[in-house]
Design brief:
The complex is a heterodimer of chains A (about 250) and B (about 150). Helix content of chain A is about 30%, strand content about 15%. In chain A, the strands form two sheets. Chain A has a five-stranded mixed beta sheet. A two-stranded antiparallel sheet of chain A has the order 6-7. Chain A is built from nine helices and seven strands; from the N terminus they run E-E-H-E-E-E-E-E-H-H-H-H-H-H-H-H. The radius of gyration of chain A is 21 Å and the shape is elongated. The longest helix of chain A has 17 residues. Chain A is of the alpha+beta class. Chain B has two domains: about 25 residues, no CATH class; about 110 residues, 3 helical TM bundles of succinate and fumarate reductases, CATH 1.20.1300. In chain B, the strands form two sheets. A two-stranded antiparallel sheet of chain B has the order 2-3. A two-stranded antiparallel ribbon of chain B has the order 4-5. In chain B, helix 3 crosses helix 4. The longest helix of chain B has 27 residues. At the A-B interface, strand 1, strand 2, helix 1, helix 5 and helix 9 of A face strand 1, strand 2, strand 3 and helix 2 of B. Strand 2 of chain A pairs antiparallel with strand 1 of chain B, so a sheet runs across the interface.
Chain lengths: ~250, ~150
C-alpha cells in the first residue's frame, strides 16, 4: 500500500521580495493519524523547506503561539488534526486581521498594546503587607471570573472578529475578557482604572455581538459574554446612584 | 517532496505592501467577508432586519400624525404593496426579536439565593415577557380601537 500523503498549502511572504502573500504547496507523508497541522509545518521546516517561518512553542494548546488560519478558520495548529481535513488539501495562512511580517508570522504589537491598556493584573488601592496574610477567596468568588482567566492570548478571537477586522481601534474580545477577569476578582480594586478603556466607544460599545470570538476560542472562554456583560454593568453603573457604583 | 506550486491565496483579505520601511503586508477586510461564513451571513441578516423595521416605524409615526388630524379625514394606508411590505417587516421583526431574546441568556447574569440563574431560564423569562407584552398591546389596540 502506498504511503499516505497530505497536501499542505502554506502562505509565503518575503517582505524583501514579494508584493503580496502567495500560497506554496507541499506534499508530505501523512504517516500518523495523530499528526496535527503544526507537525506538518515542522516536517516541512525540517525536511522540505527550512525557510518557512511560523510561531510555535509548547505544542499542547497552552502557550497560544501557533494560532493560524486553517482552511479559513482560526485554529491552534497544535490542536488541528490532519485527519479532520484529509484527503482535502490543508490551507494554512496567517491569522486574519493582523499585519503580516513574514510567511505565517503576524505582527501582534496592536494586541499587546491593547492587552497592556486594560492592566491585566490585580490592582489594589492599598497593598496588604505580606505579614497580613493571603487574600482569601471563596469558591463562588473564584467561579465568578474563572472562565475568563483561561485565556491564553492566542488571538484567534481577533482573527474571527469582523468588527476588529473593519476597525482595528476596537479593544477586541480577549482584552475585554481579561479586563472582566480582573474586574470580577474579589481581590481587585482596579475597575475605575480600566473603565476609561473598556467603556470607551472603541471599547465594549464597538462590539455588535457577532459571537464568533466565543466559537473559535480553543479554551472555552466566552469573550462575547464578557463584552455584553460589561456593557450591561457599565450601563447599570451609569444609571445607579454614585454610592453603589463601586 | 515539495511540489513548488505557487497559487494565489484564496482566504487572505485584500491588502497592500507597506514598502520596505515597515516590511509588513497590511490586512484589509475584503468587501465580501460576510459571505465567507454562515455565521457571518446570519449576523449581517440579523443587523439588516433593523433597517426595514426602522422604515416601517417611521411610516407608523406618519400614520399617527395623520390620525391626529381627526378620524373623519383619516384613512390608513392599505395598498397591497404596503400589506406585503408589512408582512415582510413582521417576519424581520420576529427574527430580530428571536435572535435578540435568545442572546439574553448570555448578556444577563443574575443570582438567586447565592446561585446563578440558568441562562435557559433567563431566555425563557424574556420570551414570556415578550408574549405578555404582545398580549397587553393587542388587548389595548383591539379594546380601544373598537
Amino acid at each position: 500500500m502506498p504511503d499516505k500523503k497530505v497536501t499542505i498549502q502554506a502562505t509565503r511572504f518575503d517582505p524583501d521580495r514579494d508584493e503580496k502573500p502567495r500560497l506554496q504547496s507541499y506534499e508530505i507523508p501523512f504517516s500518523d493519524e495523530s499528526m496535527v497541522v503544526l507537525d506538518a509545518l515542522n516536517y516541512i521546516k525540517s525536511h522540505v523547506d527550512g525557510s518557512l517561518s511560523y510561531r510555535w512553542s509548547c505544542r499542547m494548546g497552552i502557550c497560544g503561539s501557533c494560532g493560524m488560519m486553517v482552511n479559513g478558520t482560526p485554529k491552534l495548529t497544535c490542536n488541528a488534526f490532519l485527519r479532520d481535513y484529509w484527503p482535502r488539501p490543508v490551507v494554512v495562512e496567517p491569522l486574519n486581521n493582523f499585519p503580516l511580517i513574514r510567511d505565517l508570522v503576524i505582527d501582534m504589537d496592536d494586541f499587546m498594546h491593547k492587552l497592556k491598556s486594560i492592566k491585566p493584573w490585580i490592582i489594589r488601592k492599598q497593598e496588604i503587607p505580606l505579614g497580613g496574610g493571603e487574600h482569601r477567596q471563596t469558591n463562588d468568588q473564584i467561579d465568578e471570573f474563572r472562565q475568563f482567566s483561561e485565556c491564553i492570548n492566542c488571538m484567534l478571537c481577533y482573527a474571527a472578529c469582523p468588527v476588529y477586522g473593519l476597525n482595528n481601534e476596537f479593544l477586541g474580545p480577549a482584552a475585554t475578557a481579561l479586563a472582566r477577569r480582573y474586574n470580577l476578582d474579589s481581590r481587585d480594586q482596579g475597575l475605575t482604572q480600566r473603565l476609561p478603556v473598556i467603556a470607551d466607544t472603541e471599547g465594549v460599545w464597538e462590539c455588535s455581538f457577532v459571537g464568533e470570538c466565543s466559537v473559535v476560542c480553543p479554551k472555552g472562554v466566552d469573550p462575547a459574554k464578557a463584552i455584553q456583560q460589561t456593557k450591561l454593568d457599565t450601563t447599570m453603573r451609569f444609571v445607579l446612584p454614585f454610592g453603589t457604583r463601586e | 517532496m515539495s511540489s513548488e506550486a505557487l497559487v494565489p491565496s484564496p482566504h487572505r483579505g485584500e491588502g497592500e505592501g507597506e514598502g520596505r520601511e515597515s516590511r509588513e503586508y497590511r490586512w484589509r477586510m475584503p468587501a465580501n467577508w460576510w459571505t465567507r461564513s454562515r455565521r457571518y451571513f446570519l449576523y449581517v441578516v440579523r443587523e439588516f432586519t433593523a433597517l426595514p423595521l426602522a422604515l416601517w416605524l417611521l411610516w407608523l409615526l406618519v400614520e399617527i400624525k395623520r390620525a391626529g388630524d381627526g378620524p373623519a379625514r383619516y384613512s390608513p394606508h392599505g395598498s397591497a404593496a404596503f400589506v406585503v411590505f408589512s408582512v415582510i417587516v413582521l417576519l424581520f421583526a420576529l427574527y430580530h426579536s428571536f435572535t435578540f431574546l435568545t442572546l439574553a441568556g448570555t448578556i444577563i447574569h443574575l443570582r438567586f439565593i447565592d446561585r446563578p440563574v440558568p441562562a435557559s431560564l433567563i431566555v425563557l423569562s424574556q420570551f414570556a415577557l415578550w408574549a405578555v407584552a404582545s398580549g397587553v398591546i393587542a388587548f389595548v389596540l383591539i379594546w380601544f380601537g373598537r
